[in-house]
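Why does residue order matter? Because the sequence determines the fold. Keep that principle in mind as you read this record.
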Amino acid sequence: MDMSNNPTAAILALFYGLLLKELLAVAFVAVFMFLLRRRHQDRVISHVMEDEVPGRRLLRGAFGGLWILDGLLQAQPAMSSEFVPHYLVPILNGQPIGIANLMERGIIVWAGHPIFWDTMTVWAQIFLGLMILVGRDTRLGRVGLWASIGWSLIVWVMGEGLGGLFVPGNNTWLTGTPGSVVFYGIAAWLLLVSPNRWRIGSIQKRMRWIVGGLWLGLAMLQAWPGNGFWSARVLAGPTINMAEMAQPSWVSAPLYATGNILLRYPHAMNGIITIVMAVLGIGWLWKGGRQIAIASMLWAFITWWLGQDFGVLGGLGTDPNSGLPMIFVMSASIMVSNAPQKLKNPTGKDVEMGAVSMTDGTG
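Structure:
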């Protein structure tokens, strides 16, 4: 699937010229938000975040950074002219009629002023990342997290077609289902949970159920006969398509090799893929713990590489696909501290808490 393109010099000049003009307005708004944060900073929350749990800090830094990365990816030269025909329109294939109609309306709006909407998307995503990173647990940071959830929902429907969930033959973890922005929304929701819930470890149960449920759901999609993954052509198709994108040979060669294995042994390979994800899901729901988390991250990395092709290559990649965000969520889960923690109460006094186990399921 060749997504390469050659936008004209005039289009590129218009595209990047508009980005530079908008930069002045963005800088003004950024300064205003910074001053507003300094004036209205919530002192209690600021006091609580002095010893923020490492897992929560990782989640904030990772997904704030990912939003900024996504904004920069949206500024690639290819986006100026080929985003609609080579990215959005193909996602329509196989969608349920209701979703397809909704996406078509969005595509019509975008196609009317493609450069304007693309530059707006660039700055919107960069701003979301900055609000999460700079705002932290202030009002600015919470607004950024709520905005992140809302924007994730819009992108999930209009830009990812619900991650292909209802498109047989494309609704597999190997292509990035359920969609990367699902994890952006999950991360924002977890960060909105009180820091004290992280500090005492009760967030662990929520994270276990989220990750375990996702792996089990993906295993069922992979095994469902109607999705066609027991067929060599359907199972290997997405990987081979990724390998054919414009990218260095050292990146595409392992994808071709993986695609050939899937073509030769479709039943065995689909069975292995299904069983691995089912075991991971059961492991998270039953007990959780460091071992199952590390195994899950290893599986997520392998499939992010050999199935999702790291997501950002080819000139029209809008994000790093689902593998990397999933790894960040699972990493945050195992970084929730086991040691006794001091719970901050609204008066700023410390309340000593007992040790919380990695596998503690109390809510």
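Residues 9-40 form the longest helix (32 residues).
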